[in-house]
Specification:
The complex is a heterodimer of chains A (134) and B (64). Chain A starts with 7 loop residues before the first helix and ends with a helix. Chain A has five helices and no strands. Chain B has a single domain, classed as lambda repressor-like DNA-binding domains (434 Repressor (Amino-terminal Domain)), CATH 1.10.260. Classes of the chains: A mainly alpha (134), B mainly alpha (64).
Chain lengths: 134, 64
């Protein structure tokens, strides 16, 4: 997030993030193991495939909680700006790439990549917003 | 928005960190407000006015 770790809202976000990442690794290993050993199909396969994404999606809720809990209006504003810039950049890249795929037959981009791409752009935007207010 | 925060702070020998602590905000917030890059909300502006024992208009002016 935007500033030092003395901020209680950021501390709580970091703690939740660690828990989500630990859950993600555990569930991912469990899913991979289950697919290797039991070769599930039908509804069970769908559930096992979706499970690892849940802690990752939880990050969106965590960001929402951070924005609610952040008492510093400037930091909240700066973080919102970074989130919006990240969203804009991701939409721009994926839209342009979609057109390139359709018309110029470039390599297909896995949808799986959109989420990490968003956080990459949010990270870059956070630095740029920080520099803007320096 | 223009403001007299730097002057008011200097009169009291407060650093940006001192003021931030009194306002319960980050030092970055004080810096952004002081340099006119971020306009505080009304509650924060009132808090500033109370802290410096003056009015909001005496701290901020809407001249460009």
């Amino acid at each position: 997030m935007f500033c030092s770790t003395n901020n209680p809202a950021i501390k709580r976000f970091n703690r939740r993030f660690m828990v989500a990442m630990a859950l993600y690794i555990a569930i991912m290993l469990l899913s991979v193991w289950a697919f290797k050993i039991y070769h599930p199909s039908g509804g069970i396969a769908y559930i096992l495939a979706v499970l690892p994404s849940l802690p990752i999606l939880g990050m969106l809720a965590m960001v929402g909680m951070y924005l609610t809990e952040e008492k510093d209006e400037f930091l909240r504003n700066a973080q919102i700006q970074a989130l919006i810039w990240g969203m804009g950049a991701t939409l721009a890249v994926t839209t342009v790439w979609g057109c390139l795929e359709d018309f110029a037959h470039v390599r297909h981009m896995d949808l799986f990549l959109v989420y990490p791409m968003y956080w990459f752009f949010v990270g870059v935007s956070t630095v740029l917003v920080k520099l803007r207010y320096k | 928005m223009k403001n007299r925060l730097r002057v008011l702070r200097a009169e009291r020998n407060w650093s940006q960190a001192d003021l931030a602590e009194r306002l319960e905000v980050s030092r970055q917030s004080v810096n952004a407000i002081e340099t006119g890059k971020f306009d505080p909300s009304l509650p924060l502006a009132f808090k500033l006015a109370r802290l410096f024992e003056t009015t909001i208009e005496a701290i901020f002016s809407d001249e460009s």
